[in-house]
Structures are given as C-alpha cells and as structure tokens.
Amino acid sequence: MRILIIGCGYIGLPLGKALAGLEHEVHGIRRSKFPAKDITTHALDITQHGALDGLPNNFDWVINTVSSSRGDLEAHRAVFVKGTRHLLDWLGESSTHLLFTSSTSVYAQMDGSWVDEHSATKPSGGTGVHLLETEEMLLTSPQPATVLRVAGIYGPERGFLFRSFINGESVPSGGDNRWLNMIHRDDVISAILTTMKLEPGIYNVADDEPITQRAFLEWLVNRLGKPMPPEGEKAPSKRTVTNKRVRNTKLKAVGWMLRFPTFREGYEALIREE
Asked: Residue 243 — φ and ψ, nearest 5°?
C-alpha cells in the first residue's frame, strides 16, 4: 500500500519505519527537512493553504500523527483544525482511508469515572476542544476514518512526570489524586497497525491500569530511592485537565496485544536504559 504519514515525529517516524519494514511504500511529512531511511520525505506545513498540492492524492492511507507541544492554543488549533481542513480539501472525494491520533482529553469527566468510546465528549476548553472538532471533521468526511483516542504517551526520552521527577522538577500538589491514563509509544504504534486492519471507527488507546498522580510519584519514590518532592503550586497548562479512567476493552477485544500492559513494565524498561 501507499501510505502518507503527516507528522513524522515521536510516533510518526517509528511508525513509518515499521510500515516500510512491512514492505509498504511510505511517504512522510514534517515542517522541516528530515532524514528517514526507507521513507520518502516531504518538508511541508499543512497549516498553509495549498501545501499538499504538489503531492499525488492517490494514497491508500493517510495517517495523521501531528502534535503541537509548542506554541499557544491558537497554534494548536492551526495544526489540528486548520491543517485537517486543508487535508480534506486536498483529498476531495477520494476513497483514501484516514487515521488520526487524537487524545483521551476529549473526555471531560472530572469525577474519576470509567470512560469508553460511547462516553460523553464535552471538553470545556483547551486542546480537547480542537481535537474533538478535528475528529468530527474526519468522521463526517467522504473518506473512511479511524480515530484513536490516545492516552498520555511515554517512552524513550518522553514522559513528563517521570522526567520532571528525575530532574528534581516535579511539584506535587493537593490535586494529585487525579487519575492518569498512560500508554507506551511502542503500544501506540501497534494500535495503529492493528486498527488499519479493522473497520473504521473510534478506539481508545490506553494501557490496562490507570493510576493517580500521587500513586505514580510514590511508585517512583520507592523504585528509585528518591525523596518525595515538596508540594507547591503547578504552572497553568494549555492542555485540557480531566480526571477519568479510560477503558481499552474495545481494542483489546479485537486482538490488540500490549507490550507494556501497565506503566510498571514500561517504566522499568526505561529505568534500565537510563
């Protein structure tokens, strides 16, 4: 198959290598030039109108794994909402399959309840609103679309709370009983490969065991032999803040196998590599 990956970064680049290893023809887009073995690379900015016009639109799949970790909310909206509008304009009425890595932040629950793919999605603000708008554009497009609502990604050189703790920058607060939902990068890639074989739809991508922020910090304290950092006030974030536990039952029921079923296996592997 001919596959285009938009956003050849933390997820997109290793995904492209995995797909190329399965003998697919893989093209990748990033804003700046980048070397990538076995991937035909394109330096494009999808927030710019007409940026995709130079590419053939006869791909079997377009997989959008863009991120916007830098910049303000307006920059985030441009990458996701504006960029997706440009993508759909470029595709027109083609039958290309679409896959988008969204986020579990579209679930706005604050009571610690369990959520699945049928739960309410009513983010009150922040990045979750943009992601939900992007989802709706894709799911109502002429193309068959799959949306993956991905939990907090960690892995090599990634994992905000873990890195903050290691660097002595973690700031516990009274609100640390909020639930965390996590997923290792390798399991995100396997989820994408799995859902490419399934009917279009919405799938949660999270590991088997949500954990509270406080419990996660306590695990790190015990595992690494470091003291619990002093409490303080956390800096505001552009990201949507929620408090829920995400079920992965739907995706596991169709055969998705987790390499790292919980944060323990995943972070043990990372700690050994430190």
From this structure: -150, 90
